[in-house]
Amino acid sequence: MSLSDLVLNLKVILPIAVLVLWACALLIIDLFIPAQRKGLTALLAALGLAVVLGLAVAQAGRQESAFNDMVVVDGFSTFLNVLFAASGLAGIALAYDYLKRTGMERGEYYTLLMFSISGMMLMAQATDLIVMFLALELLSIPLYVLSGFARPRADSEEAALKYFLLGSFSGAFVVFGIALVFGATGSTALATVLEVARNGAANLTLLVIGAGLVVVGLGFKVAAVPFHMWTPDVYQGAPSAVTAFMSVGAKAGGFAALLRIFMVAVPSTSAHLWLVFEILAILTMLLGNLVAIAQTNIKRMLAYSSIAHAGYILMALVTYGLPTTAPIGVAAALFYLVAYAVTSFGAWAVVIALEKAEGKGLELDDYAGLGRKYPLLALAMAVFMLSFTGVPPTLGFMGKFYLFGAAIHGGFVGLALFGVVTSLISAYFYLRVIVIMYMREGDPEVSADPWLKFTAIAAAVLTVLLSLAAGPLFNLAARATLFLN
Amino acid sequence: MNFVIYPLTLTTFFPLLGVLIILFLKAEHKNAIRWVALLTSLVTFGISIAVLAQFDTANPDLQLVARAPWFQIANWTVHFYMAVDGLSILLVMLTTFLTPISILSTWTAVEDRVKEFMIFFLLLEVGMLGVFVAQDLFLFYVFWEFTLVPMYFLIGIWGGQRRMYAAIKFFLYTMAGSILMLLAILWLGIYQGTFTVPDLIAKGGIPDAVQMVLFIAFAAAFAIKVPMWPLHSWLPDAHVEAPTAGSVILAGVLLKMGTYGFLRFNLPLFPEAAVKAAPWMALLATIGIIYGAAVSYAQKDVKKLVAYSSVSHLGFVMLGLFALNPQGIAGGILQMVNHGLSTGALFLIVGMIYERRHTRDMNAFGGLWKIMPIYGVLTLIVTLSSMGLPGLNGFVGEFTILLGAFGSEHISPWFAGISAAGVIMAAVYMLYMFQKLFLGPVDKEENQALKDLNWREIVTLIPLLVFIFWIGLYPKPFFTLMAPSVDKLVTIIQAAAAGLP
Lengths: 485, 501
Known about the structure:
The complex is a heterodimer. By secondary structure, chain A is mainly α. Chain A has helices at 3-12, 14-31, 39-58, 75-101, 108-125, 129-147, 154-185, 190-198, 204-222, 230-237, 240-265, 270-293, 298-318, 326-354, 370-373, 375-389, 395-409, 413-439, 450-468, 471-482, and strands at 64-66, 71-73. Chain A has one domain (3-482). Chain A is built from 20 helices and two strands. The two termini of chain A are 27 Å apart. By secondary structure, chain B is mainly α. Chain B is built from 20 helices and two strands. A two-stranded antiparallel sheet of chain B has the order 1-2.
């Protein structure tokens, strides 16, 4: 490879390259920043992410592959890269005050965050199963460490260990699945897999089993039932700022891989696997929403809620074998990821603002009286709860409208019916938060950190405004799919 | 730019201006907040009168159209599409008319968190107006669901003892109905290629079996809202726990969203299914009329009595709509307005006595006529209106409905016959209530010193009474407003009925 080729190739992964270099540099710079002034590290990390965000946006409209078709830049990857970088910025905004308050302000937090984001971005751009696996590990390992960041708190260490063990376990499924796909088609490049399968030269049994194992492995990452067991404990034990980032980033990363593999490479397996996705989606929606009703801890409630939302996004994957519906499904999933990300970060900002040392302030009852004492924050939280439920005019409603529309377009009316019924079930526990905030008396204390308030209020405003002027976002999501194939 | 100052968009969204101003007022300045809310709603009423002035009564089609593409997903285009016709103009007027009255009624009743109360109230007005003017199914659904949120807060924060239970029950019940409608809307949009109501009517041609499913999905949402027996059980809880102004709007306008939904969507979009379902709908309506009346009679709590009487009165509306002929439908629409006026007034009246005594138990009163003569006279008029005395509004509506139901070729005249008994039962429970409250000796110590109505309370009731008499004595202008649109709707239904085996 000549130097000019290398430069051309690097341009495709420019945001990732810059992010990784910046993170490495920050590791060293951080050594020279005194322990009381770690805010500077946060600032530098945020600056880097902002640059990366700009670079990702600048890739809009490009469509080329690089490194022997191992990675690609297209509408899909650009859309997700922007989402990942923005998630990183939100993650920093949530963590800054929280780490200081809880006495775990260490510079590694921000570098680990950046490494994890680079994994997510690579995941969105990868077009080879091996690169995808690398991306998966790059995404996951920093998150294992971050989950245990509150050491020596026992539940944080437990969360880290549990996440690590189950994460590695699921990683093994992915590798095994990739091996079988390779066995069936003789390649790990998605384009070749597609071509071989289309020519009928692939061993279909091996291909279906391989693809199925990939679903299992990535199902762990996106917390789909029945692979969700780790989620509540890890979400509850991990520091809240990490949970917030993880619940959005890791999920979006997992879905990026699922969408690309199934829509691009193995649509030929759909006759065998669409039912698997349908059952996964229904189970995930049902169990996530039903068990969330029983929770009294807000972190656990949001954990089950995040499981439930994975179920809604899985609806999009059910359509992957239908050539006319699949692009709508992908766009709907991308749109829903944005809606989920904005709403989640907002909700977690409120949770973090109310959290006290030693994991206090996380029970639902601690929210009593918030409506009277902090009307703005309570209003924002109410908006997030309504958005999670899917009540207009919020992004959550628009997302569900899109997803259910995709399901109905594909003829999966029964699946859409499960979607709306479980939304109704979810109304019960989301509304309970509003009831407690507004209709019970209490005297909650809230952190005075401006970044938390800013994140919460900005997210609430976005949740409402973006739903009223949803046109551009719909268009972006729709165009993100066009380059996928 | 014309879009913003367009009459209908302006009417619908003008209350938001009030919300914006109130947001910047300090919570302690309660009176300023009340005045801003009142003036905003009065100006909104003024704008709606301008809408009425521009309304062409001879035109059966949608008028004052504001239409623009809103956004596109996949290849489904959603429009921002607002318009009125004879079916909805009266309901728009009813909404803008009842809102200032309700706000005036809260002047002393709501002392806690006035700022939030008024914000939610004005937001509720936006939602309700949007429901009545939206002609795109998506836009309609957004407004429809949105009304839940402010009403939920109004019941949940300012309600009575069991307010949390009532608020959640209200929200979940209504949402349970509307989610099925959402799926039906998506189906229509995707397979018929458009979300706008006139285009969908023009396109038609939905296979019979599918049409019935869609009819039921829409009906689920609307029947819960009306509420039709046996889906009414949220209503007594919501009404009893809601603050007075909330009850007025709930009974006066929100319930009409259900009947209006049948009128605007179920009848013209699925005419074949509507003809087939008519006997069943009439059966449920008739059961509702009798059941509501019987249960009303058994109540000790005045507010609960009025709440159950709504089940009975809305049954009449549904009976009229599903007579599927001009008299029935026109009577149904007029009865929606009538019920809004008289039941709204009844809730105000209950609220006034509750504010004085903090009880609504009928046994706690008696002989109020001697102590509060003005209150007594006004209550008597409203009571007579609600039970359908000739010369007052209720009679005109119920009579027209029964006329339509007797003459209908789609439902059996027996329904009308049995329902007529509901009118008599209404006289029984309404007069029983009046007697318990106002007649007999003043045998309770606490009632001796009750003050009669003050000027503000009289001002709240008078406008309602004006219309109670007007519609009762000279209903022609109201029928003229709706007639061409009703005829057009009936033509669509007749054409569909002719095509059925």
